[in-house]
Amino acid sequence: MTARILDGSGTAASLLSQVADRVALLRASGLTPKLATVLVGDDGASKTYVQMKVNRCADVGIESVRVDLAGSITTAQLVDAIRELSADPGVHGILLQHPVPGHIDERAAFEAIAPDKDVDGVTLTSFAAMSLGVPAFQSCTPGGIMRLLDAHGIELSGRTAVVVGRSPILGLPMGMLLLRRDATVTYCHSRTADVADAVRRADLLVAAVGRPDFIRPEWIRPGAVVVDAGYNPGNRGDVDPAAADVASWFTPVPGGVGPMTIATLLDQTVTAAELRHGVRP
Ligand code: NAP
């Protein structure tokens, strides 16, 4: 079997085109959506991710403001900087680029984001609402994966879903979103006794580990849907690409999950602006 492609680049492009139309409507009424990005330190990959988000904002007409802070900043200083953005009426969405340096209390920094500006879906408020099925901003990578699956008509209800990884921004919310859609969800993590055994049972696999080619092709159940959220140096995902010979659907790396993450961020930024200005019910 050769898997069909879950086309993240194409799906993101059509989502961004709708986002651009909504931005044009807002701008015509004198409102410009604005995203603030906060970057701490000078990690090369994080800088690239922020620049990509800023570039995509410009493409669709969203204004962006960059707040780049030294890696030596304290948690209190970072929290103050984010609170300032939370209080700024001109800012509609705030993105704190993850990960922050190890000495910073990331949770405290996330919680400084006003819930109505939490367009990256990282606060406790957003996570709780998303888990309970209350309308909320979703964590962008899992939210983007759900949009990608829906765009390709992938059935989720009653399917056995296995999520490898349980990070607060990716694996954990991924499983909650799949559960809300009536999948039967299993999480694997670094203490799971036999990841291969769990993966073999998956109708739908989401790999979010951060280890290149960690998921072996022989673990994949024939006909499974395989979503590779991993992005490792050298454009390598967390799933050995040979898994595409066994799966029914497969996300390329790059061009799968990555573009959907950014498109979801921008979609949610415009939603935040629409909600604030009463353009959206
Ligand atoms: P993370 O915070 O490092 O979490 C990794 C998860 O993998 C943890 O839950 C960890 O378990 C689990 N894990 C580690 N080793 C394992 C093993 N041997 N067996 C089973 N589970 C294991 O990483 P993340 O931020 O979630 O990112 C994961 C991947 O997604 C990375 O490649 C990252 O670059 C990529 N990513 C892509 C996008 C995108 O837009 N494409 C966005 C975000 C992240 P424990 O909880 O037990 O430690």
Q: Outline of this structure?
A:
41% of the residues lie in helices and 14% in strands. It has 281 residues and is of the alpha/beta class. Helix 5 (124-132) runs parallel beside helix 7 (171-180) and helix 6 crosses helix 7.
The percentage of residues in β strands lies in 5-15%
Structural class: alpha/beta
The strand line-up of the biggest sheet is 1-9-8-7-5-6
Largest sheet: 6 strands, parallel
- Low-confidence runs: none
> Radius of gyration from the CA trace?
19 Å
| Oligomer type | single chain
Cofactors and ligands: NADP nicotinamide-adenine-dinucleotide phosphate
Q: What is the approximate shape?
A: globular
- Run of helices and strands: EHEHEHEHHHEHEHEEEH
The tally of helices reads 9
Our measurement of the CA-to-CA distance between the termini, rounded to an integer number of angstroms, reads: 45 Å
Mean pLDDT: 97
> Level of helix content?
40-55%
For the secondary structure, the number of strands is 9
In terms of topology, how is this protein built?
Layout lengths: L3 E2 L2 H21 L5 E7 L3 H17 L2 E7 L5 H13 L5 E4 L9 H6 L12 H9 L7 H12 L8 E5 L6 H10 L3 E5 L6 H6 L3 E4 L17 E4 L20 E2 L6 H20 L5
Parallel strand pairs: 1-9, 2-3, 2-4, 5-6, 5-7, 7-8, 8-9
Helix pairs in contact: 1-9, 2-9, 5-7, 6-7, 6-9
The protein binds NADP nicotinamide-adenine-dinucleotide phosphate.
Describe the structure.
- Helix 1 packs parallel to helix 9 (257-276).
- This protein has 281 residues and is of the alpha/beta class.
- The strands form two sheets. A six-stranded parallel beta sheet has the order 1-9-8-7-5-6. Strands 3-2-4 form a three-stranded parallel beta sheet, sandwiched between helices.
- The relative contact order is 0.17.
- It contains nine helices and nine strands.
- The chain is globular.
- Bound molecules: NADP nicotinamide-adenine-dinucleotide phosphate.
- NADP nicotinamide-adenine-dinucleotide phosphate (NAP) binds at residues 141, 164-167, 169-171, 188-192, 195, 208-210, 229-232, 238, 257-258, 261.
- Residues 141, 164-167, 169-171, 188-192, 195, 208-210, 229-232, 238, 257-258, 261 line the site of NADP nicotinamide-adenine-dinucleotide phosphate (NAP).
